[in-house]
Amino acid sequence: MSGNLADLVTYALKCCELRGADYADAKFMDTHIELISFKNESLESMNRTKKRGIGIRVLKNGSWGFASTNELTRDKVTELAESAVKIAKASSLVRKFEIELADEPIYEDTVKTPVKKDPFEVGIDEKIGVLQECTNRAKSYSESIKVATSNFIARKDHLVLHTTEGTKIDQLTIWSGGGVASTAIESGEVQTRSLPASFRGDFQTRGYEHFEELNLLEAAEKTAKESIELLTAKKMVQERSTIILGHSQLALQVHESCGHPTELDRALGYEAAYAGTSFLTPDLLNKNFKYGNELVTMVADATVPGGLGTFFYDHEGVKAQSNLLVDKGIFVGYLSSRETAKTVGLERSSGAARSMGYDKIPIIRMTNVNLKPGDWNFDELIADTKEGYFLDTNRSWSIDDIRMNFQFGSEICYRIKNGEMTEMVKNSTYTGITPEFWGSVSGICKEKEWRVFGTPNCGKGEPGQAAYVGHGIAPTRFENVRVGILN
User: Fold this and answer.
1) Is 284 exposed, middle or buried (0-12, 13-18, 19+ CB in 10 A)?
2) Could you tell me which CATH number the domain at 3-231 has?
3) DSSP type of residue 256
4) Is the pLDDT of residue 264 over 60?
5) Which of 12, 230, 414, 442 is the most exposed place for a label (fewest CB within 10 A)?
6) Residues 267, 282: contact at Cβ < 8 Å?
7) pTM
8) Domain boundary assignment for the chain
9) How much of the chain is helix, strand and coil, in % rounded to 5?
C-alpha cells in the first residue's frame, strides 16, 4: 500500500478519537475479481471488477457506528469519521445491551497468500482457450449434450486494517479456481453432471496453478459421459439405507449442518437471513450436548494451506487460528467475533469476522470448517458396506431455519451391493435430522483421502455478503438414512 493511503487510514483513526470514539478500526480494501464463463460455443461473460475504498467502524457508548467511502481524500475521511461516531451515538439510544470486545493481542504484520502464478497476470487468451476447449469437448461427446458450461474465477483482496488499540495489518489474499458441467437431454429427461464440484467448481487460496491442476479438459469429457449415463439410470427407491458421501457432497453437508449452526451470531439470534438461526444455542455449549457420535470431530481452521477460508488475520485484527467446534461428537465451540465471544464468556474471538468489501461491516463467516479424517481406506469402506449408496456432487438442498431438518439431492449416485459399487442411480436424495445424522457415522476415510473444497459464494447478512469459505473432508459413511424421498 502506498504511503499516502496508509497515512489516510491512520488519519481516519485520529479523526474518530478526536470525536470521542471509545474504539475504532479503519480498513482500506482493494478488491479485484475476474470471472470468465463459456456456455456451449459462446463466451457467456467476461468481467473484471475493481472496488476500493475505506470503511470506518466506531464503538461509542456500547454501540456500533459504520460508514464508508470510495473517495480517498482527507476531507471525505473527516466526514466519514464524524458520520460513524454520530451513528454509534444514535444507536446507543436504543440499544438493548452494551457491546464489549474480547481482548486480542496487538499485531503489526504484512502478509500475502503464497502463489506460484498470480491469476491476474495470466493472459485472458490462455484462460479463454481452456474454457472454450472444455465446452467443445463436452458438446462433441454426444448430440444429447445440450448445454456445456465452464468457468474461471479469481479474486484478490488487499486489506489494510488499523485499530485504535495499535494493530496494523497489511494483508493480501488471492484465490482462484473453476469448474465444468454438462447437461444431457433426451425424451424430456434432463440430467446434469458437474466437476470438480457444483456451484461453479472448486477454489483455493492459491494462484493460477490451482486452476491448472483441476484438469478441466479431462473433467469436461467425464461430465458429458456421466450425464448421458444418468439419462437411462434407475431411479433411487424410497428406503432406509447405508450411504457414503463423497468429497463434494460432504463439503456441502458440513457447510449447512455444522458451519452455519456454529456461527455464534446465528446462535444468539442476531442473524437470521438466509435460512435462519441455529439449534446450537448458547445454553448447550459445554453441556455435553451430542452433535454426533465419537467418530465426529470438526474444527474451524483458518490456517489450512490452500483452504478458501484461509487467511492470516480476520477483519477485526484477530490472528488466524484453529478451534474445535465438535470434539468426538460433543458440541464444544463456535465461530465467533470479538463482540459475540464476550457475550457468551469466551476469552477470545475465534477470528471469524470478515467483510467482503470496504463498504461492508465485518460479520461472522466460516473459515475452513473441517471434518477430521478417520482410519478407513476408501476401497475398504466400500468393501465393508454390504448394501447402500455412494452419493456425490450436490444437486439440491433444503434445510429448516434452525439447521436441524434437511434434505439434499446429489448429481451422481452408485448402488453398493456386497461391498462393490455397481449400477448408477439417478435423482438421488437423502434426508435427516442433524444430530441423528451425525450420530449415525460408522466410518471416515483416512488423511490420504482428505482434501479441502472451496465455496466462493456463501450468502449471509443484510445487506447480503457473499463470502468465500472452505471445507476439509474425506468420504464418510452414515447408517440407516432415509433415501429416495421426492426424487
Assistant:
1) middle
2) 3.30.2290.10
3) I
4) yes
5) 442
6) yes
7) 0.96
8) 3-231, 234-483
9) 25, 40, 35
The distance of Cα 97 from the centroid of its chain, to the nearest Å, equals: 30
What's the whole-number mean pLDDT along residues 374-379? 98
Q: Tally the residues of the chain.
A: 487
What phi, psi does 248 have (nearest 5°)? -65, -45
Q: Are 454 and 469 in contact (CB under 8 A)?
A: yes
Residue identified by cell 446465528 is: 266
User: What confidence tens digit (pLDDT) does each residue in 327-353 have?
Assistant: 999 999 999 999 999 999 999 999 999
Percentage of the residues of the chain whose pLDDT score is greater than 90? 94
Distance CA 449, CA 117 (A): 26
Cell 457414503 belongs to which residue? 244
- Provide the grid cell at 175: 484465490
Provide the pLDDT for residue 101.
97
* d(C-alpha 170, C-alpha 166), whole Å: 13
131, 38 Cβ separation under 8 angstroms: yes
Take residue 262 and report the three cell numbers written for it: 456454529
**What b/e readout covers 375-400, taking b as 16+ CB neighbours within 10 angstroms?**
ebebeebbeebeebbbbbbbbebebe
C-alpha 122/C-alpha 29 separation (Å) is 23
Q: What does the alpha-carbon distance between residue 1 and residue 5 come to, in Å, rounded to a whole number?
A: 7
User: Per-residue pLDDT tens for 155-184?
Assistant: 999 999 999 999 999 999 999 999 999 999
Map residue 192 onto helix, strand or coil. Answer: strand
Cβ-contact 425, 234 below 8 angstroms: yes
**Alpha carbon distance, N-terminus to C-terminus of the chain:** 53
Cβ neighbours, 10 Å, residue 195:
26
Q: Strand, coil or helix: what is 340? A: helix
Neighbours of 328 (CB within 10 A): 13
Contact of 288 with 475, CB cutoff 8 Å: no
Q: 342-363: string of b/e by CB count within 10 Å (b at 16+)?
A: bbeebebbbbbbbbbebbbbbb
Residues 420, 406: Cα–Cα separation, whole Å:
28
SS (H, E, C) 4-61: HHHHHHHHHHHHHHHCCCCEEEEEEEEEEEEEEEEECCEEEEEEEEEEEEEEEEEEEC
Inter-residue contact 140 to 187 (CB < 8 Å): no
Q: How far apart are CA 109 and CA 105, in angstroms?
A: 12
The residue with cell 459504520 is 66
Question: What pLDDT was estimated at residue 4?
Answer: 79
Reference 141, options 229, 215, 44; nearest CA is 229
